[in-house]
Amino acid sequence: MMRCYQAARLAGRHLHRLCTHHWNFPTKTGKVQFSCSSELSEEEVFSALYIPGSRATTADGVVTPYLDFSKQFEDVALLEHSVTQRCMNIDVNGIARKWSEWKELEKLRSDLEEKKATLTKAVKTLQKNKKDKEQVNVLKEHGKKIRNEAKALTQKIWDLEEVAVIGALSLPNNLHESTGTNDKLFFSLSKKPVFSFHPKSHIDLGSTSEELEIVDNSPTAYYLKNRLALLELVCNDYFLSTMNNQGFSMMSNSDFVKAAIMEGCGIHSRDRPQHNRLSTGAGHDTTPLHLVGGGSLQAFSAYFTKQIIEKSDHLPIKVITTGRNYSSSGPFSLTHPGLLGCRQSSVVDGFVLYEDVGMQEKTLLQDAMVMVTECYLHLGVHFQMVQYSAKKLNVHESAAVGFLMFSPHTGQYHEVARISLCGDYISRRLWTLCRKDKSASFVSMLHIRACHTAHLLALLMENGQEENGTYKLPGCLQSAVDSF
């Protein structure tokens, strides 16, 4: 019975919303049911990226972001237009006003610190002459007054920091000049597939072939079996070998990152609990970890956090990994069950660090688009390459290109690959720099999700299905599967 109570108590620690859960535990006398149904207050989540002065004694900062938003606030109207295009609910004018107030108070505090230092120096000089005791006392009283002013000012600054600094850090990346209000179709291979029969879902196809099992204890849990399990390995190797041939070097990332890294990549502190946060369950955790998977932007960014690349000649740095990716909780998994809505999948991810000078960014972006396009061209399955509109961008993206495949069952396009242009948005927050002469500058980043394997498997099954419930694979993949 003690274990039952402990299990119920542990489960209760992770309930942050109005919810009802029941657990049935077998005992010698039958089953004991525990239920938890109560309105629990939301756990207060503080920023892990920027630690304001009010929490400086109780929390440790992993990294402190570079705080210079002067360029963003030079044209508040343009910034507000960018936020509106993204359909984000942010009070840009309010943040800009608070930021200006905070900067003014910081300057005032700096002036007081200078005055205090000058007075201290003057007192030490006068103390050497014992005849100037009266003047020393006057200066000490003046110094005491300045200290009290600084103390009162510090409290005002701390109050403003919560709104001004953390508010400024919640602003999205600047939109790239090519990002518009509507999606732009760059390329489309062939046309949507047409079937003489009613197309089945990949879930039905996988169940018939006994290659896919959706687990009942979670709407997003699944097992790949037999040929489908081999196909996952083949797809990963297919994209991995292609990118290796294009000069990408293999690396292995951590599956876990600190909360500060999540915020550095644009995840707001209030949204972090949705991103697989791990809790110790022992009070307020100031430095929680998040399960993101080695195949993620956050894992790459964590590796290069607080790194200085010694020579610009070493750029661009191109790295690639294949590993798990764990997405955030959301309504998508309920709308699209099976592999199209799963929260974990194998992925093939590339990451490029470069110096944004001349035409380098444009060249690297075009090279990435050509490389990924050629990969999907060889599969011979209908897909589209689309540049996303501003409202479809993530916070860290200034522009993004998606590769979409059609699902005959849902009648919708689903993303199988994505190229994200990040600029120096993340490097400024996590301090990734390149040394140049006697100075250093923040590098730019390009994230390449070459393949979301779970999505690709589902769409290959649906697009290659036969009337008898079987499915055919593209020749280049089938030959690799047969070689096993």
TrEMBL record:
<dbReference type="Pfam" id="PF00587">
    <property type="entry name" value="tRNA-synt_2b"/>
</dbReference>
<dbReference type="GO" id="GO:0004828">
    <property type="term" value="F:serine-tRNA ligase activity"/>
</dbReference>
<dbReference type="InterPro" id="IPR002314">
    <property type="entry name" value="aa-tRNA-synt_IIb"/>
</dbReference>
<dbReference type="GO" id="GO:0005524">
    <property type="term" value="F:ATP binding"/>
</dbReference>
<feature type="coiled-coil region">
    <location>
        <begin position="102"/>
        <end position="136"/>
    </location>
</feature>
<protein>
    <recommendedName>
        <fullName>Aminoacyl-tRNA synthetase class II (G/ P/ S/T) domain-containing protein</fullName>
    </recommendedName>
</protein>
<keyword id="KW-0175">Coiled coil</keyword>
<comment type="similarity">
    <text>Belongs to the class-II aminoacyl-tRNA synthetase family. Type-1 seryl-tRNA synthetase subfamily.</text>
</comment>
<dbReference type="InterPro" id="IPR042103">
    <property type="entry name" value="SerRS_1_N_sf"/>
</dbReference>
<dbReference type="InterPro" id="IPR045864">
    <property type="entry name" value="aa-tRNA-synth_II/BPL/LPL"/>
</dbReference>
<dbReference type="InterPro" id="IPR010978">
    <property type="entry name" value="tRNA-bd_arm"/>
</dbReference>
<dbReference type="GO" id="GO:0006434">
    <property type="term" value="P:seryl-tRNA aminoacylation"/>
</dbReference>
<dbReference type="InterPro" id="IPR002317">
    <property type="entry name" value="Ser-tRNA-ligase_type_1"/>
</dbReference>
<feature type="domain" description="Aminoacyl-tRNA synthetase class II (G/ P/ S/T)">
    <location>
        <begin position="298"/>
        <end position="463"/>
    </location>
</feature>
